[in-house]
Amino acid sequence: MAIVEVKPGVHWVGAVDWNVRQFHGATYSTHRGTTYNAYFVQGSKYRALVDTVHAPFTEVLVSHLKNLGDLSKIDYVVINHVEMDHTGALPHIMELCPKAKVYCSQRAVEPLKQHFGDLGWDITPVKTGDTLDLGGKTIHFIEAPMLHWPDSMFSFIPEDKLLLPNDAFGQHLASSQRFDDEVDNAILMDEAAKYYANILLPFNALVARKIKEIVDMGIEFDTIAPSHGVIWRKDPGQIIKAYQNWSTGVETPGRVSPEVVVVFDTMWNSTEIMAEAITDELSALGYNVNLYNIGRTDYSDIIREILEAKAVVVGSPTMNNAMLPSLSSLLDALKGLRPQGKIGVAFGSHGWKGGAVPQLTSLLSEAGIKVIDPGLAIQWVPSETDIEASRDLARKLDQALKDL
Ligand code: FEO
Fold this sequence. Notes:
Elements: E1 4-7, E2 10-12, E3 15-17, E4 22-23, E5 28-29, E6 34-36, E7 39-42, E8 47-50, H1 58-67, E9 76-79, H2 84-87, H3 90-96, E10 101-105, H4 106-116, E11 122-126, E12 131-133, E13 138-143, E14 153-157, E15 162-166, H5 185-200, H6 204-217, E16 223-226, H7 236-247, E17 260-264, H8 270-284, E18 289-293, H9 299-308, E19 311-315, E20 318-319, E21 322-323, H10 328-337, E22 343-350, H11 356-366, E23 370-371, E24 376-379, H12 384-403
Parallel strand pairs: 8-9, 9-10, 10-11, 15-16, 17-18, 17-19, 19-22, 22-23, 22-24
Antiparallel strand pairs: 1-2, 2-7, 3-6, 4-5, 7-8, 12-13, 13-14, 14-15, 20-21
Helix pairs in contact: 5-7, 5-9, 6-7, 8-12, 10-11
Bound molecules: MU-OXO-diiron.
MU-OXO-diiron (FEO) is lined by residues 81, 83, 85-86, 148-149, 167, 227-228.
């Protein structure tokens, strides 16, 4: 992709990764790829590069920078966040412009050395309130710890009303286009929500506090240029409002979200029959329900739906006195993400001996989900009575949802 001018003298010089399908190991499916956004800022006196790209895309970044002039004359490299998708190209960039000074948060200094070795870079730690004058453009630094790492920070250029928040407000969305008004808004917001659910959910309180802090600082911006996905220039308020909503448990305005997410695995269809009975009953009661067989849906997609759901229902047969391992990734992830304000319940069929339902119930509780009932465990193939019990479990959930 060609370089793109974001603001006069500020260019996108990043890379598009069309084909990445997993992120953070195998924890996050990136069906639509991603981008690694880096920005070149030309002041009247000095030139700065804000963030770099994932190492395999180093030559793309170098090529973009060469199009903008003599790469060795970059004066500053701002590192808003140490994670390798934004710093992988840094060692090579520093070889090409060895006189550049690196600006980063205090918390990033040691991790940078631990990632790349002590290469003798001139590193200046900065904190909220510190600035870097490029001549006609000033980079203001705003620490943003835990959005999403302790070292994370935002850069802000008031002359351009441009916020560069690194991972925050990003989306894993590869596109030939660079701006929000050039892509489908429903897809954009869905990817932004999945990103929030899988990366920022544990930091709800910090997200809400940081947004309030930025509002209270009175900084004026009309463009938000994150490190992944497209740049918010048409309506940056849309993603700010969405983050305010998601961090406080409010669903995306205009989106019809599932109120209940039912997730199960099954061996010989007995637990699936229960899942369908629960879903049917909830649907008959008027709820919008999403039903997932965990074996056929990536769990990071399910977590995206749980973000805006009120209830989570999980089911598993029992094998070796325990739930099927296929549910583990989802429940382990939820334990780390700790979605707030949700209720849940478990169900499952077993053969000779049970064990899955109490285990699922315990894991829901560990994830901070309020369990409304000990759950429903039935033996072998569901009878008419068992199916009615499954429907009754849905009715209990209905009552609990009404009592919220
Ligand atoms: Fe996109 Fe935390 O790295």
